[in-house]
Amino acid sequence: MTSNSFFRSAVRGCLVLVVAAVLLLASACSSSTNSASDVAQDSREAKEVVLVTYDAFALPEEAAAEFTKQTGATIKVVATGDTGTMLTKALLSAGSPEGDVIFGIDNTLATRALEEELLVPFQPEVIEGVPEKLRPLGAAGDLLVPIDTGDVCINIDQEWFATNGIEPPTTMAQLTDPAYQDLLVVESPVTSSSGLAFLIGTVARSGEQGWPKYWQQLKDNGVRVRPSWDDAYYSDYTVSGGDRPLVLSYASSPPAEVVFSEGERTEPASTVMLESCVAQIEYAGVLAGAPEPELAQQLLKFMLSPTWQQALPLTNYVFPVTAVALPEVFERFAPRAAEPLSIAPEVIAAQREVWIEQWRETME
């Protein structure tokens, strides 16, 4: 090989090495750039909508996964106590909310949600499919979307009464009978939405003048008052191991006994005193100042979709507001009162705090 040919070969070899090095560097830079771009894109696409609600709420996980699939956003649940506490906290932070959507305001507290500019209107198409009779009237009708219903009723542990040879009560009047002394536990209307619903039911049943007397009779007969539904049902009710076979709960509680028994029960121990049932509707709304207002509207609409509505009975033990099929256990063991006790929303708004104060004077 001549010196020139050797030189050319050496040069070609160096060029090949240089080109290879450049290509490797370009490839590495490109890969690094793409990775950084992917991370940035993933960061931009990672969305979250925050649902503010009460402690007892159970997120329908499969429905939530479907929402994420459709929107790319995950649902984060922020639980802030019972319904009354949740609403009070939300009102205190109105305009700078903890989340995007609030759920769990019921018909006994709906007018409070109109205070402090807590909510913004929902998009009109959101509420399509919800029966008119469930929609709130007036200004609340533009802010609150009905999501579920459930009757607050006295539950009766039939097995306990059968074991103890006592005929169970069937009417609210009988709850003041000495035969049922120290057998009833209810929730406080000061701290519990179910307790407030029952108080309103007693006003509807006994009238403005008669209801304080009825509560005095309950007190004299040993009624126990607990701050929350969890306390009353899980600590005091005999079905849960407590010492009270009569509890203020829901018409949909008996199916839960069957479902949570994991096959040990084919029928619930409890029945429902239909005369005591008070209609309850739970609403959701978009919080003013929500960090994700568009996602909030999407979640509100999704909560009325068949996917979410069908999941409600066996996750939160409530009735859907749209026309979806109910689980068999609900059809069999969750009776609905033909005419549940109720009072017009405007009367509740005007008298709620007065009734609560009168109740406290009687019971505390």
UniProtKB/TrEMBL annotation:
One of its GO terms (molecular function) is thiamine pyrophosphate binding. Pfam families: SBP_bac_6. The keyword Signal applies. GO terms for biological process: thiamine transport. Keywords: Signal. GO terms for cellular component: outer membrane-bounded periplasmic space. This is Unannotated protein. It comes from freshwater metagenome.
